[in-house]
Amino acid sequence: MTEYDAILLAGFGGPEGQDDVIPFLRNVTRGRGIPEERLEEVAHHYRHFGGVSPINNQNRALKAALEAELSFRGIDLPVLWGNRNWDPYLADTIREAHAAGHNRLIAIATSAYSSYSSCRQYREDFAQALADTGLEGEVHIDKVRQFFDHPGFVLPFIEGVTQGLADVTTSVPGIDLATEALVLFATHSIPSEDAAKSGPAERGFGAGGAYEAQHLAVAEVVMAAATPVVESGETPTPVDIPWQLVYQSRSGPPSMPWLEPDINDVIAELPARGIRAVVIVPLGFVSDHMEVLWDLDTEAMETAAENGVHAVRVPTPGTNPAYVSGLVDLVMERVGDVPVEERPALTELGPWYDICRPGCCENVRLGFKPALAGMAP
Ligand SMILES: CC1=C(CCC(=O)O)c2cc3nc(cc4[nH]c(cc5[nH]c(cc1n2)c(C)c5CCC(=O)O)c(CCC(=O)O)c4C)C(CCC(=O)O)=C3C
Ligand SMILES: [Fe+2]
């Protein structure tokens, strides 16, 4: 048994009004070398929605759903919510936790895959929050494993793709799913250099690192489970529907390589490939972020319409009961010190590590920063 006295739900944070937009963007991009034009562009996405990101309300809803699930299971752990880049900030949440007597926290970061931005940066910000509050040695923070292949995270995507393919079949009469449809698994692009450094070096993941390998492995699981089976003839045969991993939300200077191809470039080529419909899966996102509302629902949908391609976007896990219950399972496997071989994982890559390996997801440009919940370098 590992004794924890609270769950720390660690979010990214987002603006909640027009006045928050610029200060929020400055928080996110401090020291990052993001070009001014890119910031203006992103500010415009937020301004379009009244300066309000959906992310904070998504996290409020997730917190409430986790509390309900914990109470239903009779588990006495409060859920404390803190963000990396906006109010409520991690440091404030941790200070309040300590004041209320909670000193052994198990963190859930709202991010499923391995990379600097999606794992290590959360761990660095935990370390920074303890330094800022002077609570090093007083408050202890562990973090649940990256959960890209946990059934709770994957099931909502399986439901969504199944539903999306059914929608395509009815909306585009006579479509042949095997030749005229395409499932696009979309995730956040990251610098190629960060991708290569994602995950432990000794696992030998190749150029795209653990980040790309994890997305590809989960996409395969989703396709295998969501593919319709044709019942005609002797043996039911699954329809072999083409799918592809694509990237979105590229930032940084144009001279710096980021993961490609971009979802819009791929959609623009679809008429030439004879594709008439796409199912867009926000595989890299745990809930409706600005990247989903703008980059997918606005931009990618527009590109699809311009090219005469029917497009449906699958829901994010959000507060899907399977996801909420899966997150509680992830906490409870740590509380119960459940052995690795008994932990659920739907791909060969997992279950991922509780304690990140030395050098895992380091950022070569920003240099070394202390991080919690990992092995000593
Ligand atoms: C992998 C990844 C995730 C997924 C993992 C996770 O979920 O944590 C993610 C999530 C998010 N990213 C978000 C917002 C932003 N990300 C930016 C910048 C960047 N993201 C990066 C990567 C990722 N980002 C990177 C490599 C940069 C370049 C600068 C840097 O190296 O840090 C910028 C600056 C402007 C721009 O450059 O686009 C903004 C505003 C929001 C909030 C959205 C909302 O408000 O709903 C969320 C959830
Ligand atoms: Fe981001």
Automatic annotation (TrEMBL):
| Gene name per UniProt | cpfC
Which InterPro entries does its entry note?
Ferrochelatase, Ferrochelatase_C, Ferrochelatase_N
Provide the Gene Ontology terms for cellular component: cytoplasm
Q: What catalytic reaction does the record list?
A: Fe-coproporphyrin III + 2 H(+) = coproporphyrin III + Fe(2+)
- Residues at which Fe(2+) binds: H188, E291
EC number of the protein: 4.99.1.9
The answer to keyword Cytoplasm applying to this record is yes
Query: Domain of life here?
Result: Bacteria
Q: Which GO terms describe its molecular function?
A: ferrochelatase activity; metal ion binding
Query: Does the keyword section mention Protein transport?
Result: no
Which keywords accompany this UniProt record?
A: Cytoplasm, Heme biosynthesis, Iron, Lyase, Metal-binding, Porphyrin biosynthesis
The entry assigns this protein to a family as follows:
Belongs to the ferrochelatase family.
Main location as per UniProt: cytoplasm
Binding-site positions, Fe-coproporphyrin III: S53, Y122
Q: What does this protein do?
A: Involved in coproporphyrin-dependent heme b biosynthesis. Catalyzes the insertion of ferrous iron into coproporphyrin III to form Fe-coproporphyrin III.
Record protein name field? Coproporphyrin III ferrochelatase
NCBIfam families given in the database record:
hemH, PRK00035.2-1
Q: In which pathway does it act?
A: Porphyrin-containing compound metabolism; protoheme biosynthesis
Q: Where in the cell is it found?
A: Cytoplasm
Q: Which GO terms describe its biological process?
A: heme biosynthetic process
Q: Which Pfam families match?
A: Ferrochelatase
- The record's top EC class is lyase
